[in-house]
Amino acid sequence: MSYCVHCGVELDSTASFCPLCHTPVLDPGQPVDTVSPPPFPTRRGEVPPVSKWELALLLSAMLASVAVCCGILNFFFVPQRTWSLYISGACLMLWLWFVPPLLLRGMPMLVRLLVDVLAVAVYVLLIAVDLNGMDWYVPLALPIILWGGACAFFLGALLGGGRRSILTSVTLVIGTIGVFLVGLEIFIDRVVLGRWEPGWSLVVLTVCVALIIPLVVVRRVPSLREEVRRRFHM
């Protein structure tokens, strides 16, 4: 049995170099065994990456087949209700969420967010068509979807680039949630009551502000910030 002259690891008779430090094996008294199979592979194997176009085609085919099959079942068995619109809308929404970002890696955040908001709006629109609910879709559902997209874009623009600390990110997320809920109550009250009556959203916003204040204090005071980072491993 041979040993590596550099690191001392035990060598197999088929080894022409040390598997640990790659030092060549030069032993005149024991030539390298080129007949027996080596105990480990000498070449590194790599799994080839999956083609983005093939994966996108597979996802598209799966979602399209689900939508078509549900549409056929709906047409032949339950023609009184267009329940397949829910499935088709969900498939379209999932396709818009996953396939375009997969094919377009450099898609700007604004474009990706617009696609996501459009997917949700189309899905809710299909539900409104099935339930004859265009009277609530236009004045209520669509503004809420657009308002949520605007809040998400604002949050993404502030957090973009990954330069924000965890404390700053948590502060921005809490504040955005509070503002979104205030807008949500405004839209609901205007449709249901015809006016805005401040209520539960202000309670939530107050709680969000109460959580934000100590986070801002911790963020501004270096000693507190370092203590939080050390205790919570941030």
Automatic annotation (TrEMBL):
Claim: Amino-acid biosynthesis is one of the keywords in the record: no
Q: Which residues cross the membrane?
A: 53-77, 83-103, 110-128, 140-159, 166-188, 200-221
Q: Which residues are the signal sequence here?
A: none
Record keywords, A-Z: Membrane, Transmembrane, Transmembrane helix
Q: Does the keyword Transmembrane apply?
A: yes
InterPro entries per the UniProt record, alphabetical:
DUF6320, Zinc_ribbon_dom
The Zinc-ribbon domain covers 3-25
* One Pfam family, short name: Zn_Ribbon_1
Q: In its UniProt entry, what is this protein called?
A: Zinc ribbon domain-containing protein
Native organism: Candidatus Flavonifractor merdigallinarum
Q: What is the lineage of its organism?
A: Bacteria, Bacillati, Bacillota, Clostridia, Eubacteriales
